[in-house]
Amino acid sequence: MPTNLLQLQTTLGHFSAYLSDEGLLALTCPYPTPHAALKQLLAMLPSGVPLSSGPPPPGSHAGLARSLENYARRKPPSFTLPLDPRSLSPFDRKVLTALFHVPFGSTVTYAALAAAAGVPRAARATGQAVGRNRWSIILPCHRVVAADGTLGGFGAGLNLKRMLLRHEGLDPRALHPAKFITIPHQGGPAWSAG
Asked: How many Å is the maximal CA-CA distance in the chain?
């Protein structure tokens, strides 16, 4: 396996990650098998990404594994790797930065996320940007649902979205998403310069 592809096993399942020279390019949701996680990771990567660019940054494997295991144990994860924003538009980055601030164990509507990202009339485009999210768990797209509390979409499948919501103590059949979220002026994911 190329050295920039990582397979990580936690008590919640198997994750796959891709580390570029700029940072974390993609991270899957937890899957029941390493093969399923790797298959999803390869589908998520932007076109033209080489699969053997070099070794991941020193210590990145252990830090990422520790953060994911903390999430699996319902503890606050602390992700310190910069995210490689390759192929994302400025709009996508704005939406995904707002997504970073949706707390563990809560849900938010697409409209509320759009407003938090500073584009209140762009709920549909916000949903599309959420669909382009390549950093599951770090940028928790599973916490975004329709205004009526239904699940909406999820690229990794609705069963996985339900599992993640249950893991965070929520009942996917009775969600009460926030209609408004506050985004701090400082903080957010660490985007690499690339």
From this structure: 46
- Catalytic position from the list 141, 164, 165, 170: 141
- DSSP notation for 79-123: --SPB--TT--HHHHHHHHHHHTSPTT--EEHHHHHHHTT-TT-H
What is the domain extent for residue 39?
Answer: 5-72
| Domain shared by 63 and 94, yes or no | no
Q: For residue 41, how many C-alpha atoms fall within 13 Å in the half-sphere facing its CB?
A: 27
Q: Are residues 163 and 96 in the same domain?
A: yes
Q: What is the pTM of this model?
A: 0.91
Q: How far apart are the C-alpha atoms of 47 and 56, rounded to whole Å?
A: 20
Place of tokens 């500073």: 118
Could you tell me the two tokens for 186?
């400082």
Look up residue 23 and give its two tokens.
Answer: 């940072």
Tokens 């929520």 label which residue?
170
Active site residue 29: no
pLDDT digits (tens, 9 = 90+) for 140-187: 999 999 999 999 889 889 999 999 999 999 999 999 999 988 887 777
Q: Helix 90-100 to helix 123-131 angle, to the nearest 10 degrees? A: 80
